[in-house]
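re: that chain from earlier
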Amino acid sequence: MKETLEGRLKNLIKLFVKDKALLRSAGLFYEDVKYFVLFFLRYPVEYAVYRYSLLAGKPYFGLVMQAWMTIPERAAWMRKAVAAVKGGGPVNILEIGCWAGHSATVWAGALKEFHAGRGRLVCVDPWKSYISLEKHDTSRFMYRQMEAGLKSGDILRLFFHNIRSAGAEELVLTVRAESREALKYLATDSFDIIYVDGDHSYDGVMSDLRLSAPLLKDGGFLCGDDLELQYGQVDKAAIEPVKNLNFATDPAQETGYHPGVTLALWKFFGADVSAYNGFWLMRKTGPAWEKVTLG
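^ sequence. v structure.
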């Protein structure tokens, strides 16, 4: 297989940088520069598409404010999860972490496609500043762009615009609050699917898992996003110090991942989970959990 230019540059960094901590810093710097260049090459066109979408009443999921978030491969598995819900009654979905509404429109579309729009999607997100500039990974350009969207309120306005433009408004109930507060007021055994995609720190993911599990019906799916590596694949000594960072590089796999998601899932379920292109899910069976095979 022909090596890409990006692969050559990364291998060049590894050749001259042997120290793992310095290598990680060099890798983050490389990703930051790459994103910075890509952003400014594409931004004029992307911003024009963004403004046009707002004026024309069309959904926008693109580079501006990182409004895309849900990649197509994972969206396909989310739809399969909705299709797998049985019972014939209304299907209720809880989404924790909504950003610009990309995943919310996927859930709402699947409710219409597979369950004739019978059900409700509850979206929980505070839409407030959360990025700590003291954490070294959050100094990256893309995180600063996201932070600006939160502070200005533009990302929240885009969420409501996208929900309306996608024709999902009648299915969506929006709760603007921290999940650790909002989930306490939701009824137990009331959701068929609960999607955890909010705070990606270990503490945040673990809190969401513990608070949402009782809200799930027996036989329902507890699922989420951003599981690039399972616990059995990562360097065990390296994950603990970075568990509350949003993103890190695993020295064993030499790839980026969300350490808080990986570690929280392992500790909550006590085993690897079923996963498809970063989308993970488990079925609630009484007091236990089982893996799910999606066709």
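The longest helix spans residues 20-56.
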